[in-house]
Write a structure and sequence with these properties.
- Two copies of one chain form a homodimer.
- Chain A starts with 6 loop residues before the first helix and ends in an 8-residue tail after the last helix.
- Helices cover about 30% and strands about 25% of the residues of chain A.
- In chain A, helix 10 (about 255-265) packs across helix 11.
- Among the domains of chain A are: about 1-15 and about 20-180, Rossmann fold; about 420-510, GMP Synthetase, Chain A, domain 3 (2-Layer Sandwich), CATH 3.30.300.
- In chain A, the strands form six sheets. In chain A, strands 2-1-11-10-12-13-14-15-16 form a nine-stranded mixed beta sheet, sandwiched between helices. A five-stranded parallel beta sheet of chain A has the order 4-3-5-6-7.
- Chain A is α/β, with parallel strands linked by helices.
- Chain A contains 15 helices and 26 strands.
- At the A-B interface, helix 1, helix 7 and strand 16 of A face helix 1, helix 7 and strand 16 of B.
Chain lengths: ~525, ~525
């Protein structure tokens, strides 16, 4: 049916060849120039005997070359494997070898890791140095490859063909490779543009890491429209504000923490950021307090929140700008992940996959053209996740009468105590509202009587004190008795992953060793 | 992959159930009510033993029931067969029997035809009376069926499944049934919304006939967004202006003739039409003179032209509003069919399917997820039209350096004279600029010396006179000598189809009897 990701580039070269495609530092290239480079890089990959669907990795900060890499791999018929730059060398090697990645592009930031990766990996053969200096010995120069190869004809992979393996997870053990197809990513991009229009004169800034699918789908939406991409190597508030001012940025994607760092930055008022029209954010809801400060800072900007996951080709719901504007807020709605974008089915189901009535909490499941092909080399996990044709997100949530989705917890973090479901996030929210609590985590621990019981691990604020009983009394004013922690302990810190995610499974391990825990 | 047309209704019921879905005269129904009726009508179709993919016809003027029919047939797992209301009974019977249509919905306007259709058709079994009076004997009542059947669960046909057979043609003999899939129509709708955004507070007016795919894709785009449809039975300028004023219409689709009839209507200034934001038009380019009058009449309206055909799921290129606005016009561009919409490949090829350089005239070919499954029961015509994976449109045209497409003629109307290609449309345009010419048609006729020679048939304006030699001299001031008519004849009228289309094949027949004409 010819749904294919390079179509956007074909069309941009046909209709917008003199429009600037990429801006990276002082480099600017039109869609005509960008396309020429992509076709030549694809020619180089073909000369390296890239097989149809073969994975090509990239380990790099953001740059215009990252966008060329995506398009060139697809143009040559391959599949991308964008490497998480926050991972340890061992994790990187695991993901490269897991999906048999032979060719890896590396930039100046990560070229120092190459020796170790080569040593540990059993698949890695060819390193392409995508940096700005001379290519180190034993690597191929990205720019030389482009200069020395002729443009390739598009390999025309499309539809259900694999376009990439995207590694996700890490909080529950080894990462899983999510296999996405051309239709998966393209349909998500088309739905995204249909849902949140992108005018042709907009310029989008890529500041969130491009290895991450959320950032990559912003890239794809901009390609579908053929607008100008401006790329920053990584998030840094002053560099971001400089870029917005210099390149007249219209739209960007951030996480709420980034928004906070920009809005609260002392130099914020010294830049002209009036070109900004839209800030997309994801990963977590935004607080009303931060949103108020953001609106004061950016009075003409539309804020919109996306919710999704790699297995769904990124965002599948949107909380639109109208619900963020001071005049449009509905109590509680800012905590919502929004409504389904066009083309996507969202439902909330019980443990037997029956749809639940509105308002009842269950597992969020999703169906549509963006749902992954499966996990790389994991047929059982794939069958389990995709049973009945729906992607089981593992997120617990509910939907209100107007189709607004509320994500309350991870299913596996839900505690079943005396036949009642307790969502750890709800208990954590209650605990966090006590002045003495810096951070906390709530997990289910084994109980003879209740199956599981609610256990809280608390990190206190410096110099604060509070008793277990005081905390329990505080909780009882906010949530039902059976949800309040039965046991509470105080610690100096919680177990955190390299990416800053709380590792609840580590906390649970201490209590569940040798026992089987029923989940969901 | 779950690309399916009823998804839009599922989503509208989930997220916009209290929004008005349809307005038809004084009937208004929300998406909740509309969905309930659709699910019950689908239940009735299932009770009538509708098979997966089975065709269901509708012969009716526009109404809210036409929209229910589309969605209910898909919900029940069937395929629509919307009947051309301009056809003779014989043509209708041909199309019903060709694709074996057993069930036909008919409204008050056409119920009188039923006796004759029943008599002549070998397939027709069940007539559903979708009118406002009592159901005539021998027919089932649409409203009774809805009242007496429970809601059906969606049959979940999707992707490459047949969603409809759309009859096209008639200027070259019997109509052909174009088979479209769920992905065909849905991808076209998504591309359309991505290309020309539809805000959620818009109301769209359906005034072009809903059996026609161009009007139907406007319906689908509005469903994808979940906005309000307002339906008029047929085009009539005063009814249109009343509806725009009463229902605060934002957008509508017309052909240029309709635009002209509204803009030049004596009552135009007595209506408040200020809610209009967008007028989409197709079927033919618009003249600058009409556009100037239209801009004066609708200063805040964006005009956009679409080009496409049934085999492509309707529109595949757009000439956007910016090129219509008085400040944005580029000489000649208003004669363009615009640029490819996102997701669609357009190319211009020679007789051996090789892509031609920009500016050269050849056959327009199209590739993408909207290209039809094929012609019903016509495997040879299908293979010929879709050879190499591209739909061969039969239109001759060229593309400029910026990807703007110009349609110059039908390939089969192109005249090959002494190895030169002459496009009949170009010659007709030249002839039409002579004051004495009311209308004209240019065809190729057999020539011993040149293979074909250029022949013009002229209808003069009342009381006008002109000689053959004067017309030839006029042409020579506008086009190259080899393009000028070698022979000219004067007639009282040209052969025209019931739908008002010029039937060039009838003109040619007179000259080519018994001979084989090489086409394209």
């Amino acid at each position: 049916m010819y749904q294919y990701l390079t179509q956007a580039l074909h069309r941009a070269m046909q209709t917008r060849r003199n429009v600037v495609a990429t801006v990276c530092g002082d480099r600017r290239r039109t869609y005509g120039e960008f396309g020429e480079r992509v076709m030549r890089l694809a020619g180089a990959l073909r000369a390296l005997k890239l097989e149809p669907g073969e994975r090509v990795g990239m380990l790099a900060l953001n740059s215009d070359r990252y966008l060329e890499y995506y398009m060139a791999v697809w143009w040559a018929g391959g599949a991308v494997n964008p490497v998480n730059i926050r991972w340890s060398a061992a994790e990187i090697v695991y993901s490269l070898d897991d999906c048999e990645t032979r060719i890896l592009l590396v930039d100046d930031q990560f070229i120092g890791l190459i020796g170790g990766l080569r040593e540990q990996s059993r698949c890695l053969e060819t390193i392409i140095y995508a940096g700005d200096s001379l290519a180190p010995e034993g690597t191929l120069s990205y720019e030389d490859l482009i200069a020395s190869h002729g443009p390739l004809t598009d390999a025309m992979r499309s539809d259900d063909d694999l376009c990439g393996v995207f590694y996700t997870g890490g909080t529950t053990g080894f990462p899983k490779g999510v296999m996405l197809s051309h239709t998966n990513l393209l349909s998500n991009a088309m739905s995204g543009v249909a849902e949140v229009p992108i005018p042709l004169d907009w310029r989008v800034l890529h500041v969130a890491p491009l290895f991450h699918l959320a950032a990559m789908t912003v890239v794809l939406r901009a390609f579908v429209r053929g607008i100008t991409h401006v790329v920053l190597p990584a998030f840094e508030p002053v560099a971001l504000m400089k870029a917005v001012q210099r390149d007249q940025i219209s739209s960007l994607l951030m996480v709420p923490t980034m928004i906070q760092m920009v809005v609260d930055h002392p130099q914020m008022t010294s830049f002209d950021l009036s070109s900004l029209k839209q800030i997309l954010y994801g990963a977590s809801p935004i607080s009303e307090a931060l949103l108020d400060r953001a609106f004061a800072a950016f009075p003409n900007v539309e804020f919109a929140q996306g919710y999704g996951m790699t297995e769904l080709s990124a965002g599948i719901s949107f909380l639109h700008g109208q619900w963020h504007a001071p005049g449009g807020r509905v109590p509680g709605r800012l905590r919502s992940a929004g409504q389904a974008i066009c083309g996507v089915d969202i439902a909330v189901v019980d443990g037997e996959d029956h749809e639940l009535p509105k308002g009842q909490i269950g597992e969020i499941v999703v169906r549509g053209p963006g749902v992954m092909l499966g996990y790389w080399n994991k047929p059982e996990e794939t069958a389990e996740a995709l049973r009945g044709g729906w992607m089981h997100t593992g997120d617990a949530g509910y939907m209100d009468e107007d189709g607004f989705l509320f994500v309350v917890d991870r299913i596996k973090d839900m505690i079943v105590t005396g036949a009642e479901n307790v969502y750890s996030a709800e208990v954590e929210n209650a605990l966090s509202r006590h002045a003495a609590v810096a951070t906390c985590a709530v997990v289910g621990v084994p109980s003879e009587k209740w199956g599981e019981s609610v256990h809280a691990v608390i990190v206190l604020r410096p110099d604060a004190t509070v008793t277990e009983e005081e905390l329990r009394a505080h909780c009882r004013t906010l949530i039902a008795g059976y949800k309040c922690p039965r046991t509470i302990e105080f610690r100096a810190a919680l177990p955190i992953s390299g990416a800053g995610k709380l590792l609840k499974f580590k906390l649970r391990e201490e209590f569940w060793q040798g026992r089987e825990r029923q989940v969901g």
